[in-house]
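User: Reviewer 2 asked us to show a designed sequence for the structure in our supplementary figure. I'm pasting the structure tokens here. Could you produce the per-position amino acids so we can include them in the response letter?
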């Protein structure tokens, strides 16, 4: 259970920081900086910080709570790296749909509990109804939490490659959409100023 809670808290930390940073650009737009450059810098910075946090979570799970990692560390770090990129992309897309930071924060507060429940971590996805299983596919946490648990506890996950593939798909879909919506939102913010 601790692994799942740690992953939810980790994801929420990514959401709040990335969302606040993205929406800051709406409130303080700089027409000199191209949108693609702005997003690239944010992605690199927040991905680096998220990986540092992911490493800290792994360390705490092992050192503080005594949950030993049975899988190769590089396998877990690869999953974490792709998840961080997917979560950042997902968050940039979500944040681009709001006009102010407060609107985003209100929505982001409602996200962690459904994400945790739908991820199948506390209640197996196979026991959920078809509609709930379908909805679960749209939460990045679904593709991280169970795989991380399996890597920690058994050393192998039958869903490892599928999780990596789906998380990469999140990046390939969410990032271009976020770029389009963010560009539109920033133009609107510039015209309002």
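Assistant: Here is a per-position design you can include in the supplement:
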């Amino acid at each position: 259970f601790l692994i799942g809670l740690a992953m939810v808290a980790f994801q929420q930390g990514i959401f709040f920081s990335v969302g606040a940073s993205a929406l800051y650009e709406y409130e303080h737009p700089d027409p000199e900086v191209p949108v693609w450059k702005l997003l690239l810098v944010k992605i690199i910075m927040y991905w680096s910080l998220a990986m540092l946090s992911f490493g800290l979570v792994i360390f705490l799970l092992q050192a503080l709570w005594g949950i030993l990692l049975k899988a190769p560390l590089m396998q877990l770090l690869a999953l974490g790296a792709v998840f961080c990129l997917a979560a950042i992309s997902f968050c940039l897309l979500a944040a681009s749909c709001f006009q102010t930071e407060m609107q985003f924060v209100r929505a982001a507060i409602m996200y962690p509990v459904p994400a945790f429940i739908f991820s199948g971590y506390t209640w197996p996805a196979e026991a959920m109804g078809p509609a709930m299983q379908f909805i679960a596919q749209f939460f990045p946490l679904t593709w991280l939490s169970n795989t991380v648990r399996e890597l920690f506890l058994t050393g192998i996950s039958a869903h490892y490659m599928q999780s990596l593939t789906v998380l990469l798909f999140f990046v390939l879909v969410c990032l271009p959409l976020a770029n389009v919506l963010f560009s539109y939102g920033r133009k609107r913010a510039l015209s309002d100023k």
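For the response letter, you might also mention the following. Residues 160-192 form the longest helix (33 residues). The two ends are 48 Å apart (CA to CA).
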